[in-house]
Amino acid sequence: DQQxxxxxxxxxxxxxxxxxxxxxxxxSMFDYFLWYKKYPAEGPTFLISISSIKDKNEDGRFTVFxxxxxxxxxxxxxxxxxxxxxxxFCAASAYTGNQFYFGTGTSLTVIP
Amino acid sequence: DTGVSQDPRHKITKRGQNVTxxxxxxxxxxxxxxxRQTLGQGPEFLTxxxxxxxxxxSRLLSDRFSAERPKGSFxxxxxxxxxxxxxxxxxxxxxxxxxxxxxxxxxPGTRLTVL
Lengths: 112, 115
Hints:
- The structure holds two protein chains of two kinds.
- Chain A is mainly beta.
- In chain A, strands 2, 4, 5, 9, 10 and 11 form a six-stranded mixed beta sheet that branches.
- In chain A, 0% of the residues lie in helices and 54% in strands.
- Chain B is mostly beta strands.
- In chain B, the strands form two sheets. In chain B, strands 2, 4, 5, 6, 9, 10 and 11 form a seven-stranded mixed beta sheet that branches. Chain B has a four-stranded antiparallel beta sheet with strand order 1-3-8-7, with no helix packed on it.
- The A-B interface holds A 4, 6, 9, 32, 34, 36, 41-46, 49, 51, 89, 91, 93, 95-105 and B 4, 31, 33, 35, 40-45, 48, 55-56, 58, 91, 93, 100-109.
């Protein structure tokens, strides 16, 4: 069963505009959420995280929003740049943080 | 380069053969994880080590799979009697000892193809 879901396999955005990537989860025990970015032939690289005690975390052009009641989080990238083109994975873990559950990824293409 | 390294990067084998992969984590990280990723899916957790102790194993880790981390540093993942369904990218990740919630740093992965 997929406990973390990314329902949009792909997204195209014009350079300079906002990219919004969405993620839903089903397990109410999850309390730590991360976004990873993956380029072809490389492992995922950590982008940004959020704890369940917060509803927003910002790091430069990247902001993650968490809506616990809806079990939904989103990643906003503003402004989007061509170098942001990659596959983005949402991940979640419960208190111990030992096991991360990943979504299936969203492939973002930023068009120059 | 002080990141997570994995060897080999690619492995092609025939069905029924045994394969072994190696992961070298970031040196000060005491936690090490193995994941498997198939096409169109996100990484799926296989197993977790804290130092040399294997503390968690997924149901995905059948008895043909074994992982070790003998001295709490590098780790190996062995697959015995490989099957075509084992074809996947095998990812290793590590994280530091401090705190409860820490991001995991991933290596480049080993792509396994079973013919």
